[in-house]
Amino acid sequence: MAVCGICREAESKYKCPSCKVPYCSLACYKPHKAEHEANPLPPPPPEPPAATTIIPEIRPEDKSPFSPLLTTPLTPTLRKHLLSIHAATKKPIHNPNSSYRGRGGGRGRGGGRGGHETREREWTEEQETKAAIEKLRMLREEGNEEIEEFVQMVVGLVEKDQGDTLQKR
After folding, report:
1. Looking at the domain assignment, is residue 137 inside a domain?
2. pTM for this entry
């Protein structure tokens, strides 16, 4: 165990919530706390303003018409939402020890004699796509402005790409 950071004699049992200095008793903590009140810690620096979504111009040297998505600044919440959509595409983890056994998993009326499939089903690309679309739909229904702006930007890029493809033919 650590020694008290204030009296340096007894074994510490606690830590100061402000600076995490270990202390042994209330007798040591009270004068230490008074120091914090006399010399408060500086406030944390202000957060930078949230980035706005601006559609950058596509340069001819860019290989993909969707490269502006890579250079568009993402706010932390938009990044979180996009990661949640990506996470929805991952195969759900099946826990064999879970208490829910599904329909007919208990005893009675044919239960317990086999007949139910125990092997895991394959997670297909179609299921991934459906899960991602469902997650995106839920986010859009919540009225999330960042997601809506991102979707509009992607739709604009797709329409522009389709227009460019038709002009090349």
Report:
1. yes
2. 0.45
